[in-house]
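Tokenised fold entry reproduced for everyone:
>
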Amino acid sequence: MLDQLLDGRYKIVQSLGAGSFGHTYIALDLKLFEKKCVVKQLKPLTTDPKTLKIAKRLFDSEAQLLDRLGIHDQIPQLQAHFQENQEFYLVQQLVDGHPLSYELTAQQRLSEAYVIELLQGILEPLAFVHQHNVVHRDLKPSNIIRRKSDGRIVLIDFGAIKQIGAGAVSTEETTYVTVIVGTPGYMPSEQASGSPRLSSDIYAVGMIGIQALTGLKPEQLQKDEHTAEIIWRNLVQVSPELADVLDKMTRYDFRQRYHSAIEALQVVQQLSSQESQTMPVNIIINDATHQQTTQQLLKPTLQQQEVRDRSLLPQKNSMVLFGLSLGAITSVVVAALIYLFIYSRIFDWNQQIQSPSQNALPRTNMPTPRVSPKRLTL
């Protein structure tokens, strides 16, 4: 397939991956300055003329849907769609970035602040999708791209279009049939039974959040044998508010979840406004190796800075009081030493004045001259 020219303009230069529905490639648009784009090849399981006719109708319908969704900045734009050699092709905008799976590495537990930011980042474009009453069906880390230019989340690889390549048409009845599209672990029970709902996407988002907190993939988590609910709270320390949101997202019964991304986004935004901790931003992946990750800290918002300053105020006051006390004690000690020094000098001086002078001449015991009596003569 490499170097093959499709539709007379798209030259395949690199393979991105393959699945049951077909292949994904990077191509050069030779009619648009050789700009890179993504080409998705969809292979129907059968090539019966009636089947291909129905498949084409479904393909055109889904392509129109992707074209409407592509007006959102966090969803790749559909640039073209065509049929060639009984195969269907989609051409979409190439997003320069890395998949979320590069951030959610095994056994790495990410912070609560990161998870809140991640949930909000996913739910924002998903809310737009749900406004069009569309279910993504295949939300998972590898289908979520962190855009390099601004670090924002981009949703790719919608599962609806995969039905065409996975056998969405019955060769016997030539009618459309439901095909299960999704990934085990991120796919709830109702979707696994062929009845996806908007809340099915919410389940996937919640599982991604739990994976980020615990460092464990969905299949590594246990379920309650009586309720079938995910058991994860005992694995990490997390605030009750965030834990409650994730639990509601991943309820086994779809009726107990948030009904759509619009509702879930409002709740997560409230958590984000209450979050006072500094959260890590995008994990930047080295484009050359795509193996090493580093984390940077977001510059705190004004609200976060005010909260942090208030939390540090008692510490600052304690330091100020300690400094003043230490200065007062030092002053007293120095004054006492000066006083003792002056007092000792004065005391010595007074002693010298009051004691006999050692410099005076000593008193000598001179013998008293004896005068002999004169004899009187008459």
Q: What stands out?
A: Residues 166-177, 278-308, 357-366, 371-378 have pLDDT under 50 and may be disordered. The first helix runs from residue 49 to 69.
